[in-house]
Amino acid sequence: MAAATIVHDTSEAVELCAPCGLYLKPITKMTISVALPQLKQPGKSISNWEVMERLKGMVQTHQFSTLRISKSTMDFIRFEGEVENKSLVKSFLACLDGKTIKLSGFSDILKVRAAEYKIDFPTRHDWDSFFRDAKDMNETLPGERPDTIHLEGLPCKWFAAKDSGSEKPSEEILIKVFKKFGEIRNVDIPMLDPYREEMTGRNFHTFSFGGHLNFEAYVQYREYAGFIKAMNALRGMKLMYKGDDGKAVACNIKVSFDSTKHLSDASIKKRQLERQKLQELEKQREEQKRKEKEAEEKQKEEERKQRELEEYERERKREEKLRKREQKQKDREVRRNKKQLEKLQAEEQKKLQEKIKLEERKLLLAQRNLQSIRLIAELLSRAKVPSIFISEANEEPSRTKPFTDLRVGGDRCSLNNRFSTSRCYSLDEKVKKVQRNIIFPVVKHAHIDSKAFGART
Prior knowledge:
Elements: E1 5-7, E2 14-17, E3 22-26, E4 29-35, H1 48-58, E5 66-72, E6 76-82, H2 87-96, E7 100-102, E8 109-116, H3 124-133, E9 148-155, H4 171-178, E10 184-188, H5 196-200, E11 206-207, E12 213-221, H6 224-234, E13 237-242, E14 248-251, E15 254-257, H7 265-395, H8 403-409, H9 412-456
Helix pairs in contact: 7-9
């Protein structure tokens, strides 16, 4: 269906349902054909836009509501034009039909033919002959006789309930609009049935060129007279909507009689059975989806628990690793401190041992010195008397009286008295000499050795 167009003149509109703002307006279309000459020069062409502007210029007193190209060939260009009122069609045809157009750059003239638009609308003979000749139709049954109108291209917004807040068409509004022609037995809007597309494989949501959502509908009248009145009223008309602000728009709709037994009892029952099957199938699908969703949620929960467990295990291992690392650091610190303590103790022990060795060495040297002194003293004490005797013998050779005589002839005291003065003097001299020549060098040498040993340690 064509897009809705703005209507400036609503004088010819016929009321369909004033509370809903719906009217019927006559279709005021015409077809204009412009014959094109043969192009003799290659690369030269005729501008469709220029031809359209020339056509608009030929009608000076009035203007086209719409003018568009419906077909363009090498031989002709066909236009579809629409005017505001039915009365203007004849004046437009008089200005256009049989006239010529002279284009700049072309020597040949273009002939114009114009005629009133031929409306594709079924006649009474069409539906009477169809139902009479159809072998699978029973004219005594509703839906199998000429009682149902099939409407296409109805704007959804125009048939939506105003207080619903939705743009979906309403069966109640549809009944309210078309009950003007007679009592309605049944209506059907396929797009409102969520299972219809799946049942028929058709898409009942259609869009016009203006982007508005359109729908199709079936209206079944109880009497044949209502069907006839509706078909006659809709012939050659388009649907017009007039808003509360007074602005009006109109759109073309396609009207035909139903030849598919759409609203017959058998078809309705069949759709109900199919709908029930689809509902059961949908329930099964929903149940399956629910189970799948539950299984998925369960799996997600298990995965979440597994992730939490893995995270907990990783955290535990990390903490264990940190604990071991800290323990190792503590152990290393303890070992390091122990080694340092052992090293300090070893150094102290070594110093103590060296000190002990030094003291032992000093003691040993002192003992040796003492032993040396004692030995010298012993040696000196043993060497005292014989040395005196020898010296006296050398000095007084005349006194050669045997020692036995002395022991026989007198006591030791007398002998001592005899030799006391000279012997004591000689003994003192010899002791000093020994001390000077033997004892002092030995003691000095021992003292030097102890100092050298201390320096080495």
